[in-house]
Design goal:
Layout (H helix, E strand, L loop, with lengths): L11 H14 L12 E2 L2 H9 L6 E5 L5 H7 L4 E6 L2 H10 L5 E5 L11 E5 L5 H10 L5 E7 H7 L10 H9 E9 L4 E2 L6 E8 L5 H14 L6 H9 L8 H6 L9 H13 L4
Parallel strand pairs: 2-3, 2-5, 3-4, 5-6
Antiparallel strand pairs: 1-8, 6-9, 7-9
Helix pairs in contact: 5-7, 7-8, 7-11, 8-11
Length: about 280
């Protein structure tokens, strides 16, 4: 393991063989219920590092066997890892001997995110929950994430598209979103069935009571995403579109999935001012 101190100096074939060798040595089989797919593509590691600030304190969610972690430790000041799988924690504690590495065996959904930068190859089964937690924890100013391509398509979707939804509205109100490279299944072990993409979230607005109310509003409206906004407004909030002032003219005749993120925030403000929410 000592020779694996500089992962960017090796190609995908070596990283794949190394990963399989570590797993076999420790008798570990990837767990589907934890969506475990380990990075074996050095170009993906390099891109993640390019978005990670020099000499920063980083929280990595799901360190796996430490492939990305080792690279992060060469750039970050400290790396705090939340890893739920005790088997992998045992490997990490033997593999990484660095005073700047802090390992916590626990569920990231139940532990505060107390670092400014979050990095993660997010397990698919908790993707939405992690994105929501990142959104709600204002200490997080930047997140460098590897997500399934379909999730990136959702959070970057344009109003009126099939993928556009309440998660799109929330994230685009809180973050500037930068799309990174797209990576094939061969970038991971075991190979997932879909492509993945890097995405960077840079906070532009704190999570607040207003954004909390926005979540309530969009949850209500997007449960009927193809209905006219004015119909849902009347049925769920007992408000006529004419009571919305200038905004009423803007949303009249529009279906729920057609309003842009800024309009949803404006509608939330008006409903709050009118004492509806």
């Amino acid at each position: 393991m000592e020779k694996f101190s500089k992962p960017l100096e090796f190609d995908r074939e070596f990283l794949l063989k190394w990963t399989i060798g570590v797993m076999r040595k420790h008798g570990i089989k990837p767990r589907k219920k934890l969506s475990q797919n380990f990075i074996v593509n050095p170009f993906l590691i390099e891109e993640i590092l390019s978005y990670t600030d020099e000499n920063s304190d980083v929280l990595e969610i799901g360190c796996g066997i430490g492939t990305l972690t080792v690279a992060l430790l060469r750039k970050a000041r400290t790396v705090l890892c939340y890893e739920i799988d005790q088997r992998l924690c045992d490997v990490l504690s033997k593999f990484i001997n660095d005073e700047n590495f802090i390992l916590v065996n626990g569920d990231a959904l139940k532990i505060p995110f107390n670092r400014r930068i979050v990095v993660s190859n997010i397990p698919y089964h908790i993707t939405s929950d992690i994105l929501l937690k990142i959104s709600r924890e204002n200490v997080v100013e930047k997140a460098v994430l590897t997500l399934q391509k379909e999730i990136v398509d959702r959070i970057t979707a344009r109003p009126g598209s099939r993928s556009y939804g309440k998660l799109t509205v929330l994230l685009n109100n809180l973050f500037a979103i930068k799309e990174g490279g797209v990576y094939p299944p061969s970038s991971f072990y075991p190979k997932p069935e879909v492509y993945h993409q890097v995405v960077v979230l840079i906070r532009k607005k704190p999570y607040s009571k207003e954004i909390e109310k926005l979540e309530v509003v969009t949850k209500t409206f997007f449960s009927q995403r193809r209905r006219l906004v004015e119909k849902v407004l009347w049925d769920k909030f007992n408000k006529n579109v004419d009571s919305m002032g200038e905004l009423g003219r803007k949303i009249s005749g529009k279906r729920v999935f057609m309003l842009d993120p800024e309009t949803w925030l404006e509608l939330t403000r008006i409903l709050h001012e009118q004492g509806v929410i």
